[in-house]
Amino acid sequence: MDFMSMQSICDIINYGDGMILEAIILAAIVLFFLKDKDISNLINFKFKGISLASIGIFLMIFINFVTSKYFGKVTDFFVDNFKIFHILSILLIGISLLLNYKNYGLLLSGAGTILNAIPVIFNGKMPVSIDALMKTNNERIIKIIYMGGSLSHGIFENPKFYFLSDIIPLHRIVGNSKVISIGDIFISIGLFFAIILISRKRGV
């Protein structure tokens, strides 16, 4: 287990959580100015498949934690089987979102999650466009992924389902630029609208 292989948690955070957090912040700003709203709906919303989502989220956090540091045979096991647990966690989260199909925002987020799972299933990792990656000027992430140090993202010559991979460079005014996928866009837009829809007085 070398240093580079122990950095998978870094690019997971950089490529996924950032967009989700931004979507939540933007939704919160919109809600602030929205008159026809009931914030209590967010607390009382009955999310179907909450157990699946919880297991998926826990699994994703856990495998990234145990592979970001070295815990002996435990880390070795999850590094060797990272693909299986990674895909399982994504699918569990995606399915839980799709179960809430009556909320079009959560449905869109679920679809985006499944779209992200497809290239991972067929390539073992999420393929990343080298051209798009270089445009981010994020030297740490470029080094990790280009040198094959990430367990979740990688550079492929002819990846399957390339159009669903991380191929879109996203330049940010604040924070590091990154490469995102169509699925990432669906997830963020879906989450944004899900929060708005749930918060309306009649709720969804």
Describe this structure in words.
The chain starts with 7 loop residues before the first helix and ends in a 5-residue tail after the last helix. The chain has helices at 8-33, 40-44, 50-68, 73-80, 82-98, 104-123, 130-135, 139-146, 182-199, and strands at 126-127, 153-154, 168-170, 178-180. 62% of the residues lie in helices and 5% in strands. A two-stranded parallel sheet has the order 1-2. Strands 3-4 form a two-stranded antiparallel sheet. The chain has 204 residues and is mainly alpha-helical. The longest helix has 26 residues, at 8-33. Mean pLDDT is 85; it is low at 1-16. A hairpin with a 7-residue loop joins strand 3 (168-170) and strand 4 (178-180).
* Helix-strand sequence: HHHHHHEHHEEEH
β content, as a range?
under 5%
Could you give the count of β-strands?
4
Low-confidence parts, pLDDT < 50 over ≥5 residues? 1-16
Specify the structural class. mainly alpha
Average pLDDT rating: 85
Shape category: globular
Strand sequence of the main sheet, in spatial order? Answer: 1-2
Rounded radius of gyration (Å): 18 Å
End-to-end separation? 47 Å
| Major sheet details | 2 strands, parallel
Helix proportion: 55-70%
Helical element count? 9
Question: Which characteristics define this entry?
Answer:
204 residues; mainly alpha; two-stranded antiparallel ribbon; globular; disordered N terminus
